[in-house]
């Protein structure tokens, strides 16, 4: 074969190899799109946008005793009504359901959250507020005139068990919503036995903190200090429940924990 023929043959071979490489590369790219397709960035943005679009109103759910119910507040709002207004100002339309029951104990509430309708609400809730323990403490520790310390300790153990069960059930139904549980205050701070009752309340508050730390995203709202000095200023005429000023202070503390920009400050209410 002469040099000219050899050159044509080499060129032909190179073109053939190049074509084969291009063909194989194209085949690999095509099959990779079928086996492991990459998502279009526009599609990802659309999906995120859909996730952020609420299908229904957010839900603020209140659980607990007479404090969540608002007993003692002249206008009936309590802390829950006030925080509902503040949440709506910041987030727009928000549904709010108050399941607080006057006189409820931790045992009662741990049973209430297992009811079908309550479980449904728990699953839908975006925020959960909670007041519980005051009735357990002051009913289960003997009379105010003669507090039974041993009985109070036994009652605290039972309270810890019920509170643990309660928070476990809430988290079982809803793993994401933050839970805000108020600490306890001493409504008898102005009486002669205030040292003993105050010590009991502080011990119970430690129990609340301990149990809450065992669960995810449970925030304890301290209010002991709000009612310790000059309790008549923040208590209703029954000397047990907060008045409108006391509830306003509670709502302010909760608003701070919720990072609400517009929560009304209790000091401004008289």
UniProtKB/TrEMBL annotation:
Database matches in Pfam families: Lipase_GDSL_2
Domain SGNH hydrolase-type esterase: 63-247
Entry coiled-coil feature ranges: 149-176
Spans through the membrane: none
Keywords from the named record: Coiled coil
Alphabetical list of SUPFAM superfamilies matching this protein: SGNH hydrolase (SSF52266)
GO molecular function: phosphatidylcholine lysophospholipase activity
PANTHER family linked to this entry: SPORE GERMINATION LIPASE LIPC, THIOESTERASE 1/PROTEASE 1/LYSOPHOSPHOLIPASE L1
Protein known as: SGNH hydrolase-type esterase domain-containing protein
